[in-house]
Specification:
This protein has 376 residues and is α/β, with parallel strands linked by helices. It folds into two domains: 16-49 and 173-306, Response regulator (Rossmann fold, 3-Layer(aba) Sandwich), CATH 3.40.50; 71-167 and 309-372, Rossmann fold. 38% of the residues lie in helices and 15% in strands. The protein has twelve helices and twelve strands. The chain has helices at residues 36-49, 80-96, 111-121, 138-147, 172-189, 205-221, 241-251, 269-275, 291-299, 310-326, 331-335, 365-372; strands at residues 16-19, 71-76, 99-104, 126-130, 151-154, 164-166, 195-200, 226-231, 257-260, 283-287, 304-306, 342-344. Strands 1-8-7-9-10-11-12 form a seven-stranded mixed beta sheet, with helices on both faces. Strands 3-2-4-5-6 form a five-stranded parallel beta sheet, with helices on both faces. Helix 1 packs across helix 5 (172-189) and helix 7 crosses helix 8 (269-275). The longest helix is centred in the middle third of the chain and has 18 residues, at 172-189. The model is unreliable at 3-31 (pLDDT under 50). This is Substrate-binding domain-containing protein. InterPro entries: Bact_Solute-Bind_Prot2, Peripla_BP_I, SBP_2_dom. Residues 88-327 form the Periplasmic binding protein domain. Belongs to the bacterial solute-binding protein 2 family.
């Protein structure tokens, strides 16, 4: 999950919502309940999810060789993983003879709209945006529609609407899968004693999808498990979030898992835990790991992350545009998820990573897409 933009928040989100009762099992001398069958089912699912993907998942070829010479404009939010994804768009565009213009955004509440305005000024053949709620781009999307510029939105929860050809990529089904995967892992590895604090930004709807599905997967196996959702602002990343994690654990020592809805939220957290004498107090995991999270898995200091194939997502963006320009159906592309898996300290050295430590998903992705596009 990536590049989540600034929603219209009226106040700083720092509330903490505790959900369900504390968790335990009979071996620990507590009264918590565990659905043994559900836990066993979670363990079986986890065993499969630890395996490396064997392809890009998408297998439907396009109807004809794509046109060349297209110009694609891509507003880019400042999260590092967004840049990785957009490098995938650039790489895929080059393979097709397309030009890709990336437009960096600032961090202010109006900067997403300003970058979109700059994209429109380029008179591109298409625009790709991600993370920004449609409500923040109404005027820009209306102008794109009037100019006949197709728009592709990803990493959002908004439905397809006039002028936007697709919003499915890294959307609700994908992020729901990530939440379920991590929830199943915690259920399978907590011995019925999980109290998970989930650090997220609930004003970004796509992150709420992760949180809700994590909670459902965990509590279905351990009905008395506890999930505490701790909301952050994007500006808290690396600044206030580390202390928020420390304070959450100090306030309730029963917290034994710290789950993050985006890996970049862990920036500064290990150092803060170390300074507070809390290293090892909680198991750390979540979705969209950064290279620092991958390194921590290798060091054995973090527990589990879902693989987020950012580069492949960039190629999938281009694939969606190829199908649109060809006049092909988008149905299969809209329903096919990205390759992913659970990454732990036990399998991290065998999962596909790029030279910077980002999860790749499937190393042969470029050749696979070229074959689908009839150019390989």
């Amino acid at each position: 999950m990536i590049n989540f933009k600034r929603p219209l928040l009226a106040a700083t989100l720092v509330s903490v919502l505790a959900v369900t009762a504390a968790c335990g099992d009979s071996d620990a001398g507590t009264t918590g309940t565990v659905d043994v069958a559900a836990v066993n089912q979670a363990k079986a699912a986890v065993a499969q999810l630890l395996k490396n993907p064997t392809g890009i998942e998408l297998t439907e070829p396009v109807s004809k060789r794509p046109p060349t010479g297209k110009l694609i404009a891509v507003p880019e939010s400042p999260q590092p993983v967004t840049h990785v994804k957009n490098l995938g768009i650039v790489e895929a565009g080059k393979a097709l003879g397309w030009r890709v213009q990336v437009i960096p955004e600032g961090t202010g509440p109006e900067d997403a709209a300003k970058a979109f305005d700059q994209a429109l000024a380029l008179k591109p053949d298409a625009i790709v945006f991600s993370g920004t709620p449609v409500a923040l781009l109404r005027a820009q999307l209306e102008r794109a529609k009037a100019q006949g510029v197709p728009v592709l939105g990803e990493s959002i929860t908004d439905p397809v609407q006039p002028g936007i050809i697709s919003t499915s990529l890294d959307g609700v089904p994908q992020v729901a899968q990530y939440g379920k995967m991590v929830g199943q892992y915690v259920a399978a590895h907590s011995g019925g004693k999980a109290h998970a604090a989930v650090f997220t930004i609930s004003g970004y709807p796509i992150l709420t999808t992760f949180t809700d599905n994590f909670r459902q997967a965990l509590t279905s196996a351990c009905p008395s498990c506890k999930v505490t959702v701790v909301n952050q602002q994007i500006s808290d990343l690396g600044t206030k979030t580390p202390q928020s994690v420390v304070s959450t654990i100090q306030r309730d020592p029963s917290v034994n898992w710290a789950i993050f809805s985006i890996g970049d939220l862990t920036l500064g957290v290990p150092a803060a835990l170390r300074a507070a004498g809390l290293t090892g107090k909680v198991k750390i995991g979540g979705e969209t790991p950064s290279p620092a999270n991958i390194a921590a898995l290798k060091a054995g200091t973090e527990e589990v992350w879902t693989g987020f194939a950012a580069t492949i997502l960039g190629w999938r963006d281009v694939d969606m545009l190829v199908r649109h320009f060809n006049g092909d159906s988008l149905d299969t592309a809209n329903t096919t998820l990205l390759p992913t898996q659970l990454i732990t300290k036990d399998n991290v050295r065998s999962v596909p990573l790029d030279s910077n430590g980002y999860y790749v998903g499937y190393p042969g992705y470029a050749d696979a897409f070229k074959k689908l596009w009839k150019i390989g």
